[in-house]
Design brief:
By secondary structure, the chain is mostly helical. It has a domain of 71 residues. 44% of the residues lie in helices and 3% in strands. A two-stranded antiparallel ribbon has the order 1-2. The chain is extended, with a radius of gyration of 20 Å.
Length: 119
């Protein structure tokens, strides 16, 4: 029987991937307790976003190269999330933020419920 040994990264190692955590306050490393709107992202995310905004940023579903690249990136992201969630890519949707998505879901579900219904 084979065993997979996974190295667990230290907190210090993980922090090195988040540029915002390089800050110090009175010689102490900072911690952010923001909600999702203020979530800090790893360096790789910042670099990928910069690359997209500098070289590929476009509206979807047009015939020009950056639009095609945008479609391909979104499709790849849906495929990746589908694999992660054991779903199909057609079941994956992206939205502006979690608050907006939750409001949309609540409104959609609310159409089906009436007085006395139990959730």
């Amino acid at each position: 029987m084979y065993q997979t040994i996974m190295k667990i990264a230290s907190t210090e190692e993980i922090r090195t991937h988040f540029p915002a955590l390089d800050r110090k306050q009175g010689n102490y490393p900072v911690a952010y307790f923001d909600g999702p709107g203020g979530t800090q992202v790893p360096r790789q995310v910042v670099e990928a976003m910069n690359d997209y905004l500098y070289h590929h940023n476009a509206n979807m579903d047009w015939a020009y190269p950056s639009s095609i690249e945008t479609n391909e990136m979104i499709h790849a992201a849906r495929e990746t999330m589908a694999d992660f969630l054991n779903a199909s890519a057609s079941e994956i949707a992206f939205g502006a933020n979690m608050t907006t998505l939750t409001f949309h879901l609540a409104r959609a579900l609310g159409r089906e419920f009436g007085p006395g219904d139990e959730i």
